[in-house]
Design brief:
By secondary structure, this protein is mostly helical. It contains 13 helices and three strands, in the order βαβααβαααααααααα. It has helices at 19-35, 44-47, 54-71, 88-97, 102-106, 109-118, 125-140, 153-170, 215-223, 241-254, 258-264, 270-296, 299-328, and strands at residues 5-10, 37-42, 79-82. A three-stranded parallel beta sheet has the order 1-2-3. Helix 7 packs across helix 8 (153-170). The longest helix is centred in the last third of the chain and has 30 residues, at 299-328. The chain is globular, with a radius of gyration of 21 Å. It binds adenosine-5'-diphosphate and sodium ion. L-tryptophan binds at residue 137.
């Protein structure tokens, strides 16, 4: 197998993925399974860095897996698993903790943002060290490619630094992931505030499309999306962020280009664009929801997918961990 390795993790924190998760991340996972030896995991270890309800976390983890399958991940063409099913993540995470400077960890800007959001009483050491667990997540699979958003760039730099540090100190062990791992994918904005990205934590209900909501609810949100007082349907992220966001969603969901859409809607109003996009949305999301539900209604199949995924993941992770343990003197 000389296909490059890819590794990506997705949080199970919300029951439903939102449209930004799908168009910005999951869609790319589906494409990458054709070109890469791809490992995808639902990162439940990361989910407990902030307070969780156990029953909710368990259910959300399964719902995340069901949605990944519904979106097109194929367990025969990729390795799909739940992070806590592979104990090597926590084990290598500890080794990496012991290789990271306290000052170095303190410079992670995501921690500053997240701890500010959760407040001192709910800020755990786990939240502080989660980027180091993420380093272990990547290095365990000797991944070359890590499809993540721009907000994760600093963590990938940390991964490179720690991989190089380990290799220098103990001998060649880890693949150093490529520096340009951040691929530009569609970025989706809040439908009510197109200057902010669509986000489960920051968007208002009307600005956020949850993939598992009733399709007619999502259609309504598209139809009431904020646009502008002009009437021309043209992509201009600066001057016309609302319309541009709708064009991005439309083009990405249908596989057309923005130029084609601009041509199609020349001389037509925003109403026509929104009505059509609402229909596109309903047509896409209806079978997606049905497929997700099928997986959730068949727990044995889902368990079998996850057992097989964990087994495939552990085969790689255990080998890397054994090498690392041996190198550090265990
Ligand atoms: P959120 O930002 O809503 O908390 P996550 O941080 O769990 O979502 O993101 C999961 C994945 O989805 C990441 O790869 C992230 O880059 C991507 N993603 C999240 N929001 C968007 C968005 N609005 N547009 C494009 N991609 C997004
Ligand atoms: Na985020």
């Amino acid at each position: 197998l000389d296909r490059p390795r890819a590794l990506s993790g997705i949080q199970p924190t919300a029951g439903s993925f939102h449209l930004g998760n799908y168009l910005g991340a999951v869609r790319q996972y589906v494409a990458l399974q054709e070109t890469h030896d791809a490992f995808y995991m639902v990162v439940d270890l990361h989910a407990i860095t902030v307070p969780q309800d156990p029953a909710e976390l368990r259910a959300n983890t399964r719902t995340a897996v069901a949605q990944l399958l519904a979106a097109g991940l194929d367990p025969d063409r990729c390795t799909l698993f739940v992070q806590s099913h592979v104990p090597e993540h926590a084990q290598l995470g500890w080794v990496m903790n012991c290789l990271t400077g306290f000052g170095e960890a303190s410079r992670m800007t995501q921690f500053k943002d997240k701890s500010a959001k959760h407040g001192a009483n709910q800020t755990t050491v786990g939240l502080f060290t989660y980027p180091i667990l993420q380093v272990a997540d990547i290095l365990l699979y000797q991944a070359n490619a890590v499809p993540v958003g721009e907000d994760q760039r600093q963590h990938i730099e940390l991964t490179r630094d720690l991989a190089e540090r380990f290799n220098t100190r103990f001998g060649d062990t880890f693949t150093v992931p490529a520096p340009h791992i951040v691929r530009e994918t569609a970025k989706i904005y809040d439908l009510q505030d197109p200057s902010a990205k669509m986000s489960k934590s920051a968007s208002t209900a009307k600005g956020l499309i949850n993939l598992l909501d009733e399709p007619k609810v999502s259609a309504k949100k598209i139809k009431s999306a904020v646009t502008d007082t002009d009437t021309v349907i043209r992509f201009d992220a600066e001057e016309k962020p609302g319309v541009s966001n709708l064009l991005t969603i439309y083009a990405t969901l249908t596989g057309t280009t923005i130029a084609d859409l601009e041509q199609k809607y020349e001389g037509k109003g925003y109403g026509a664009l929104k009505t059509d996009l609402a229909e596109v949305m309903v047509d896409w999301v209806t079978p997606f929801r049905a497929r997700t539900q099928e997986y959730l209604d068949d727990p044995e199949t889902l368990d079998a997918v996850l057992a097989k995924g964990a087994e495939k993941a552990r085969a790689v992770a255990a080998e890397t961990l054994a090498q690392a343990y041996e190198k550090v003197g265990f």
